[in-house]
Design a protein that fits this description.
- This protein is an alpha+beta fold and 323 residues long.
- It has 8 helices and 14 strands.
- The chain has one domain: Sandwich (Jelly Rolls), CATH 2.60.120.
- The chain has an 8-stranded mixed β-sheet. Strands 6-11-8-9 form a 4-stranded antiparallel β-sheet, with no helix packed on it. The chain has a two-stranded antiparallel sheet with strand order 13-14.
- A hairpin with a 4-residue loop joins strand 3 and strand 4.
- Helix 1 crosses helix 5, helix 2 packs across helix 5 and helix 4 packs antiparallel against helix 5.
């Protein structure tokens, strides 16, 4: 693994391991089985042969590093889309700076004018990337639905394709933590983005070749994820856990810093419209598996998310009292 576990964190149980890998060029039925199993056991998997061009990926990474390389005063001009160290409004902090924007053409066009001397070029790059990862997310969700036996295989993806989807694109930049000790070879690792689950439906994540991402298993063991710039990583979000009636697990994860190199990740968070009521399809609810969660809108859940700390568990607030 690229990221060595720091001595101070051994008690947490950080164990090198490999995450499930989905070859998207494979036979569809087999791909579906691997995806569903990964979502049940990990809530997380790696996608290779995803069909998104290297050019689209490279131009987005170049745009991200170009922005984060600007002087701080220039970056702050992009506020509130730009943030540094503060994560949310409830006091959570991390060794990270970020750019957060709605995954819509208008939002991307607006922010491009604010942060770039060549806004048309930046808009084209970010829009092409956003559209590509959205399509990947939708295809994954439709494959999931098929394997789960849901008659309407677009029941999940339709929420992301909706013109009022609340999906967002987030670029995270984790600068290296400089080691000022005499032993320059030692690794200093700090929390870049603290432990949490993603509240949305599905996350499509890609980073450069620097490690830092870790996922948590139900037994509390943390698994460092080996970076692969040619692949995408997929997280099950809270909403998808609800819509599969608990069959899929919303993975808890975090990002750690690196002493020697900066890490940049780009995450697409596929989310439903604010007014959308979140319920599991009827096929996911049976006498043997009664509904675990009461119906709620994405606006309600989003409000609950922002009212809590980053690492707080939110789903328990929406548990069905009949259970």
């Amino acid at each position: 693994m690229v990221l060595a576990a720091p001595k101070a964190m051994k008690s947490e149980g950080i164990i090198p391991s490999e995450v499930p890998v989905v070859d998207f060029s494979g036979e569809r039925a087999e791909v579906a089985k691997v995806i569903v199993k990964a979502c049940e056991e990990y809530g997380f998997f790696k996608v290779i042969n995803h069909g998104i061009s290297n050019e689209v990926i490279a131009k987005t990474e170049e745009a991200g590093f170009g922005f984060f390389g600007k002087p701080m005063l220039e970056k702050k001009m992009a506020a509130p889309a730009y943030g540094c160290k503060n994560i949310g409004v409830n006091g959570d902090m991390g060794e990270v700076e970020y750019l957060l924007l709605s995954a819509t053409t208008d939002s991307i066009a607006h922010i491009s004018k604010t942060i770039s001397t060549d806004p048309l070029n930046l808009r084209k790059r970010l829009s092409a990337y956003t559209e590509a990862v959205k399509e990947l997310a939708c295809e994954i969700l439709e494959v999931m639905a098929e394997e789960l036996g849901v008659p309407d295989t677009r029941v999940f993806s339709r929420l992301i394709r909706d013109g009022e989807s609340d999906s967002v694109l987030r670029l995270n930049h984790y600068p290296p933590i400089i080691n000022r000790d005499k032993d320059k070879s030692s690794q200093i690792t700090k929390v870049g983005f603290g432990e949490h689950s993603d509240p949305q439906i599905l996350t499509i994540l890609r980073s450069n070749d620097v490690g830092g991402l870790q996922i948590s298993l139900p037994d509390g063991v943390w698994i460092p994820v080996t970076p692969d710039p040619s692949a995408f990583y997929v997280n099950v979000g809270d909403v998808l856990q609800v819509m599969t009636n608990g069959r899929f697990v919303s993975v808890r994860h975090r990002a750690m810093t690196n002493s020697h190199k900066c890490r940049m990740s780009v995450a697409y968070f596929g989310a439903p419209p604010l007014h959308q009521t979140i319920v599991a399809p009827s096929v996911m609810v049976t006498p043997q598996s009664p509904s675990l969660f009461r119906p709620f809108t994405w606006a309600e859940y989003k409000k609950a998310t922002y009212s809590l700390r980053l690492g707080d568990t939110r789903l328990q607030l929406f548990r069905n009292c009949k259970r």
